[in-house]
Amino acid sequence: MLTALKQNNPDFTVYAVDSEEFRPFGRIISDMDPTAIIEAAEKIEFPESGASYRPSVEAFEALPIAEQIRDAGFGTLPTQVGYCWGY
Questions:
Q1: Which residues have CB under 8 Å from 75's CB, separation 6+?
Q2: Residue 40 and residue 47: Cα distance in Å, rounded?
Q3: I want to staple 79 with a disulfide (CB 3.0 to 4.6 A). Which of 11, 46, 70, 85 is the partner?
């Protein structure tokens, strides 16, 4: 996938998430099972144009992984689980 991203975006520098260059932008979370949230996300219709942004989605926030994200990533602070996707 990384190769395709680089080929389709020649004007942008794209880093692998496990590269040293990506480190300032985030980290890999490997101790959570994303299956349920992926299944919920697959039900979202892809926008015909532009992007769709919803910062809070009840179907996502009701999943056990939402609590894990809140606790592990935000120290139990209130969080929203949503999405942004499109073109």
A1: none
A2: 16
A3: 70
pTM of the model: 0.69
Mean pLDDT by 10 residues, the chain (87 residues): 90 91 86 94 92 95 95 93 92
Adjacent-strand bridge partners of 51:
86
> Any idea what the Cα angle at residue 9 is, between residues 38 and 41, rounded to 5°?
10
Which amino acid, one-letter code, is at 68?
Answer: Q
Look at residues 29, 19, 85, 26 and name the one whose alpha carbon lies nearest to residue 57: 85
* Angle, CA of 19, 2 and 56, to the nearest 5°: 85
**Contact residues for 11 (Cβ-Cβ < 8 A; gap 6+):** none
The residues near 53 (Cβ < 8 Å, ≥ 6 apart) are 82, 83, 84
